[in-house]
Amino acid sequence: MIHIVFQHADVDALQKSFELDESLKGDIVEIKDDYAVGPLYNLYIGEGMEQRRQWWRDVLAGGDNDGHVDTGLVDDSKTVAELVGTMRRNPEEKIWIWAAQNKHDVSGYYWLLNYMKEFRGRVFILYLNNLPFINEKGHIFYPLNLFEIAPREFLKARKLAREITLSEFEVDPDEWTKLSNENKGVRLLEGGKKLGQADYDYFDSELKKFITPDWQKASRIIHHFLSKAKVTTGDMYLLWRLKTMIAQEMFDVQGKVANMKDFEIKTKA
Q1: Which residue positions in the chain have pLDDT lower than 50?
Q2: What span, in angstroms and rounded, lies between the C-alpha atoms of 108 and 251?
Q3: pTM of the predicted model, to two decimals?
Q4: What's the sign of the alpha-carbon dihedral 28, 86, 37, 173?
Q5: Which partner for 26 in 1, 58, 89, 126 could form a disulfide, CB atoms 3.0-4.6 Å apart?
């Protein structure tokens, strides 16, 4: 059995559940890119892949993550090629795709499905869509991320596994192609598996609310956004948006505009 997850923290959470149920045990494969942001056009061919890599180079430029794209640490194309090879060599092998109710996981599922078509009947989805679980304090909650679930709760979650249907293999890739052709920068989960889209500046107006007349480090502004905003995204994306607004001279800035702890921002004097 091969388990697929879309966030690094999910790997450890799922691994711990294996200690409670040996039948769950299997290899865990992490899809590392965040397909909820960035360009998607022609993503299954070289030109589209390189366009996306260049976009990430631009987003990560100037800080500690500059050059990270070219290290090979995030290479989902290689990961999925190895996965497809394993499935072809082992006709009894099965895949379980774990996805929680968030745009990151759902976008990753859509991206992955294109490579799973030939293995229909051997690919299962465990989608935690508005399902209640018990947290560490014994309270009922609705997890937005897989890693929020206690290891013992994975034993309940495994009962959700179902085969991806022929209809899903036909309809879902078409939905992803439609989204890819819209050339938008941000995916938003509208409920179930339905994704909407917005432009790259979608988070800007909310992010600007946390910039005050007093100097604040960019890291503090981003932290406040992530802790208070209803719809969030990754901190590197938010840092890129701050840098973009600074380049447009929307705010006063002091320090080297590189890592989020290197510079401070305030509203224009």
Answers
A1: none
A2: 35
A3: 0.93
A4: negative
A5: 1
